[in-house]
Amino acid sequence: MRTQSGKAYAKINLTLDIAGLRPDGYHEIQTIMHTVSLCDIVTVKPARRTGVLLRCNLPYVPCDQRNIAYRAALLFFEALGRRGAVFIDLRKRIPVGAGMAGGSADAAAVLRLLNQAHGRPFSLEKLKAIGLKLGADVPFCLEGGCRLARGIGEILSPAPPLPDCALAVVKPKFSISTKKLYEEIDQAPIQGRPDSPAMLEALSQGDLPRIGGLLANVMEAAALPQRPQIEEIRQALLAAGALGARMTGSGSAVYGIFAHESQARAALKTLPFPGIQTWVARPVC
């Protein structure tokens, strides 16, 4: 096994719709996801003893089987049919509990890097099948770019990427329970569903103002009664010149789309919310 290191990119949801609850307990979704440049750095290297050892720069991130990246390594070696010995180093920058698939991105990176380190025994499709056992976002994180995702998120179709732009990302001090948010959605009819076909058309035309106007996430409305600051942040980004702004995934991060990086940076400086974390990112295709 050779030491390998790489980036684990975050994602945003340009649209996110929920069709309903499936018999297996999962929710049927339709979403357009896009990889962005905010990333963790993941390194895998040979370990001195059999098993998985994981270290993270954030002290509150678990480093055992509670960590999806740790479990990714276990599943990789199980599929390989041998007991591995690997040390995983996670240098996290993607905010935790933000709806940006930070954990899934790390798991995808571990699968990809271990595959490289062992001479690429598995195809991308096999890695995605392994990743799906870990979480619905892992197959997307293995593919990256812009994708229309259906099913529980595992049925992926290529979509036109965002044109060159800047993304102002804001993470409030709080996170949101995905499980509780789904429970809220199950109890009330969904209003204001996304227009994914229109978004795909706007992406194909590279029409950034129209893309901004079509951003939609049905989970946002369910989050607002308990977390009104999400809407306050969104409105502040719009007031600062964002072409569109939405919560991503199940939150709590909110992003705004700007034509230029200087505009995104200037907008973030105007936000009056204490304790927030902010980043400027770009689309990754």
Estimated helix fraction: 25-40%
Q: Would you identify the regions where 5 or more consecutive residues have pLDDT less than 50?
A: none
> What is the number of helical segments per DSSP (H or I, 4+ residues)?
10
What is the CA–CA distance across the termini? 29 Å
Basic shape: globular
Radius of gyration: 19 Å
Q: Mind explaining what this structure looks like?
A:
With 285 residues, the protein is of the alpha+beta class. α1 runs parallel beside α2 (102-117), α2 (102-117) packs across α3 and α6 (196-205) runs antiparallel to α7. The protein has helices spanning 68-80, 102-117, 124-132, 138-143, 178-186, 196-205, 208-214, 218-223, 229-239, 261-269, and strands spanning 4-21, 27-46, 51-56, 85-91, 146-150, 155-158, 166-171, 216-217, 244-247, 254-258, 277-281. The chain contains 10 helices and 11 strands. The model has no long low-confidence stretch (mean pLDDT 95). It is 34% helix and 29% strand. Strands 1, 2, 3, 4, 5, 6 and 8 form a 7-stranded mixed β-sheet that branches.
Give the SSE layout.
Elements (H helix, E strand, L loop, with lengths): L3 E18 L5 E20 L4 E6 L11 H13 L4 E7 L10 H16 L6 H9 L5 H6 L2 E5 L4 E4 L7 E6 L6 H9 L9 H10 L2 H7 L1 E2 H6 L5 H11 L4 E4 L6 E5 L2 H9 L7 E5 L4
Parallel strand pairs: 1-8, 3-4
Antiparallel strand pairs: 1-2, 2-4, 2-5, 5-6, 7-10, 7-11, 9-10
Helix pairs in contact: 1-2, 2-3, 6-7
Summarize the structure.
The chain is of the alpha+beta class and 285 residues long. It is 34% helix and 29% strand. The model has no long low-confidence stretch (mean pLDDT 95).
